[in-house]
């Protein structure tokens, strides 16, 4: 039975981790103001204005790869300070410079770059001080903090935007508070060197280090599996590839079947985001219940959600479907980084998580284009194909992972019982 991570000894580390988790979602703060920005710049293509809220994800791909490598040399404190500075600068500058959409896009790229650093740093930072069930549970709680705080921040942004969309940018002032907390609570230690790992932990905690920190002879387990790492990254890619269907098609679906007004899609998406909070706080119980079938069952949940979209036409069931799809994705996004922390050698884990973060961002971007292209080739409705495609891909993934016993083989070979 794992002991609680919430101890006085861990308080400072956890304060740093949860601060960074909250800041990692700051690239989407301006989302509630997109319509107002469009009204201020009617001559600009609407797709360009929408990019103000989404272009940060593209920048995050770049920063995730760059800092995945740089973290082999930089300390967590330095990386945290750099990311906070990018987020604060990119988020607060539009308060003074907002005369064109181009300016807003430039600052959104800067903000997204900073947020991408954090998505790469967080798993490595967590794995530096925790492991096993503690690490698995912590990664779930980080996911809950990320999406829970995102819901609150977006709601606050919407309230501020009622007085003018520029005011929405004041929320980025929280990044300055985050900077202070990072300086105070994030330690100046590195993730990269194996000989530094757990040197600050009590001796009793050194008895069962993960295979990735020791040699093959010492642990009796293989140090690293490139193939298993690639499969984990691919799982993360498809998880976000499929959940992106909701963000791209849900508003169209609700409008197509006359299930609600313009705010209905946002309300339904709250169930998708809220599922991450529920799953994140209970991920260890879920893993204990489902064991080696955790990831396959996550894809089954996504397939069930797509089936509800296809077979029903009621708004309450739309919310249920959004919750199911979000739950499946949340289980995967809480489980894969934990598996990767055991699969990758400690010095390579930041780079592996950088690639994982970049691929999930790429999955979100690719989803729209792939389903749109497929619909054009097959001459069918993009809306219907997207939900049928979600269900088909999710079921295929669940079947392959179950038949291949991927999770079972990884946990039996690389994770100490």
TrEMBL record:
It is found in: Cell membrane. Signal peptide: none annotated. The keyword Transmembrane applies. Residues 5-409 form the Major facilitator superfamily (MFS) profile domain. It is a multi-pass membrane protein. InterPro entries: MFS, MFS_dom, MFS_trans_sf. The chain crosses the membrane at residues 51-71, 78-98, 104-130, 142-163, 169-189, 227-247, 259-281, 288-309, 315-339, 351-371, 383-403. It comes from Bombiscardovia nodaiensis. Keywords: Membrane, Transmembrane, Transmembrane helix. The lineage of its organism: Bacteria, Bacillati, Actinomycetota, Actinomycetes, Bifidobacteriales. The keyword Mitochondrion does not apply. This is Major facilitator superfamily (MFS) profile domain-containing protein.
